[in-house]
């Protein structure tokens, strides 16, 4: 079994997240059914005043190699637990489907697909098919910086990074020749989809998929959709992917979501975004990396250079769809600022904050409405 380890940076991000959204619940309210919760969800401030809703939270480390935190308002611990159990069950099921390292009985998951995809069309679970088809349509539309068909290249980086983290004294860069050879096998055209049969076929036997750039985004959307039905208000964090539901029921108009300070020795936040009914996703160069000869090499690879992209320190996206935000955070991390800005301006309802290597912060106009640092000036 081979899994990634949860990075300290992700943990500290979540601690910041927990601090920003902190608040405790006592469980004295009478139990009511979840349908009663959603029926009265419109009058949040009043309900909190009447002490109808309380705040609960749960943290879980058992899926997506990351820290998952759910904060939610409910009328009782039992109501919260019922919704949270469903949410975490869905997350675990998606974790198995998207797992690239382990097989599960009777499940044609990503691991199975990467092993057998070139032998013939493989029928995969709907979630996996949808995710691949969505990414392929982005690729067909010309957004190719996030290429999930780049598994051949990414697995080499993953191997050297894992080795380099375990044995820092002998950490090495992958040989460029190996990366170039692998880059012959990253053409998304060779991932053949049949939506009727829900099958995937690799017409290049050396191609594999790595869905790390979007899997948490897809999962966040799915779980958020479920939570909207079960809780009047929630805040979900799946690693760097945050989904903020309706405004918190403590009278505030928004949830506060931190953008991590790239200088992780500060373990603080660079900015705070006030949002509701939005997802917030950040890709940064300070999350998963290793060090060779004093230089950091992180986990977001530019398909052009086959090396970690150095144009950005972090990119944060706010929009309605977490898979789109996850996809774009990686894409705009790789693109130069001007090109990324042009992509963002083309898309309705997508707001972006870039932190550039010299420390400059750029943001779309709409982002300035969310970000406290911009609202102050
Ligand atoms: P995180 O996983 O830290 O949230 P991202 O969403 O940016 O960060 O995804 C990075 C992951 O995506 C990497 O760990 C790798 O598996 C994969 N990846 C890296 N570069 C690319 C790329 N150019 N296209 C597609 N996937 C990528
Ligand atoms: Mg991403």
Oligomer description = single chain
Query: How many strands in all?
Result: 15
The number of helical elements comes to 13
The side-by-side strand order for the widest beta sheet comes to 1-2-6-7-10-13-14-15
**The first-level CATH class name of the domain at 110-202:** Mainly Alpha
Taking pLDDT < 50 over at least 5 consecutive residues as the criterion, the unreliable ranges are 1-42
Radius of gyration: 21 Å
User: The CATH topology of the domain at 110-202, please?
Assistant: T-fold
Bound molecules: adenosine-5'-diphosphate, magnesium ion
Q: What is the assigned CATH homologous superfamily of the domain at 110-202? A: ApbE-like superfamily
Overview of this protein structure:
With 377 residues, the protein is an alpha+beta fold. It has a domain at 110-202: Orthogonal Bundle (T-fold). The protein has helices at 8-20, 34-39, 44-49, 77-97, 110-116, 126-140, 151-166, 176-182, 215-230, 322-334, 337-346, 365-370, 372-376, and strands at residues 54-60, 68-74, 122-123, 191-194, 199-202, 233-238, 241-244, 255-260, 269-275, 278-284, 289-292, 295-298, 314-319, 351-355, 361-363. An eight-stranded antiparallel beta sheet has the order 1-2-6-7-10-13-14-15, with helices on both faces. A three-stranded antiparallel beta sheet has the order 3-5-4, with no helix packed on it. Strands 8-9 form a two-stranded antiparallel sheet. The radius of gyration is 21 Å and the shape is globular. The model is unreliable at 1-42 (pLDDT under 50).
């Amino acid at each position: 079994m081979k899994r990634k380890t949860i990075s300290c940076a992700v943990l500290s991000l979540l601690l910041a997240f927990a601090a920003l959204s902190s608040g405790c619940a006592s469980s004295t309210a009478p139990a009511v059914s979840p349908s009663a919760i959603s029926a009265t969800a419109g009058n949040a401030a009043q309900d909190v005043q009447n002490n109808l809703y309380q705040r609960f939270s749960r943290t879980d480390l058992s899926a997506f190699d990351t820290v998952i935190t759910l904060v939610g308002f409910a009328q009782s611990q039992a109501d919260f637990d019922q919704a949270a159990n469903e949410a975490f069950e869905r997350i675990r099921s998606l974790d198995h489907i998207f797992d690239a390292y382990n097989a599960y009985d009777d499940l044609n998951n990503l691991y199975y697909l990467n092993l057998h995809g070139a032998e013939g069309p493989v029928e995969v679970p709907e979630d996996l098919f949808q995710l691949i088809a969505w990414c392929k349509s982005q690729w067909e539309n010309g957004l190719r910086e996030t290429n999930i068909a780049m598994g051949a290249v990414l697995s080499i980086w993953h191997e050297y990074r894992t080795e380099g983290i375990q044995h820092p004294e002998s950490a090495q860069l992958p040989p460029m020749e190996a990366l170039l050879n692998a880059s012959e096998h990253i053409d998304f055209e060779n991932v053949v989809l049949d939506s009727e049969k829900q099958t995937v076929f690799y017409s290049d036997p050396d191609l594999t998929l790595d869905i790390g750039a979007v899997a948490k985004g897809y999962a966040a959307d799915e779980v958020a959709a479920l939570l909207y039905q079960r809780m009047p208000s929630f805040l979900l964090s799946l690693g760097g992917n945050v989904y903020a539901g309706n405004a918190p029921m403590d009278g505030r108009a928004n949830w506060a979501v931190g953008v991590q300070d790239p200088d992780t020795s500060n373990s603080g936040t660079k900015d705070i975004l006030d949002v509701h009914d939005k997802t917030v996703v950040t890709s940064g160069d300070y999350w998963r990396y290793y060090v060779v000869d004093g230089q950091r090499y992180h986990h977001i690879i530019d398909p052009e250079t086959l090396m970690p992209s150095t144009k950005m320190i972090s990119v944060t996206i706010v929009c309605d769809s977490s898979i789109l935000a996850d996809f774009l955070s990686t894409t705009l991390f790789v693109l130069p600022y001007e090109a990324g800005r042009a992509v963002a301006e083309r898309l309705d309802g997508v707001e972006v904050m870039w932190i550039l290597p010299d420390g400059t912060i750029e943001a779309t106009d709409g982002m300035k409405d969310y970000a406290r640092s911009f609202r102050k000036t």
